[in-house]
Design brief:
mainly alpha
């Protein structure tokens, strides 16, 4: 076995491609697949967040409708019906939060609207009595 001098070995191997040149196709494929998967996951995450926001928006719209109904209520029975619906919506939101269909940010905005709806219902109830 002949041992080559380091300089001679480098001279003879000077035209061999380096690691990156030799594996450029595989590295490009890995980068492409990684970016495609990351893009897909990001899109999926955005879609799920959008559904959560839409769900929270529907709850908030229903609460504002109940607020308007409370302002127009002319009897204690109407107020009682509205109050029951407020509690039912609250229970539904808590269940959706527990199952991951709503996030905590949506819960905070919902809580503000729910408190306003509850307060307006209570104010109208006191006006009627």
């Amino acid at each position: 076995m002949v041992v080559l001098h380091e300089g001679a070995r480098l001279y003879y191997d000077r035209e061999k491609p380096g690691f990156f040149k030799e594996n450029a196709d595989y590295l490009a494929l890995i980068v492409t697949v990684t970016l495609a998967l990351a893009s897909w996951f990001w899109g999926l995450k955005r879609r799920i967040e959008g559904k959560m926001k839409d769900r929270a928006d529907r709850h908030n719209l229903e609460l504002t409708e109940l607020m308007a109904q409370a302002l127009d209520a002319t009897s204690q029975e109407e107020i009682t019906r509205i109050r029951r619906r407020l509690v039912a919506i609250f229970q539904q939101v808590i269940q959706e939060l527990d199952t991951g269909r709503l996030d905590t940010g949506s819960l905070h905005s919902f809580a503000l609207v729910w408190n306003a709806a509850s307060d307006s219902t209570r104010d109208r109830e006191s006006t009627l009595t």
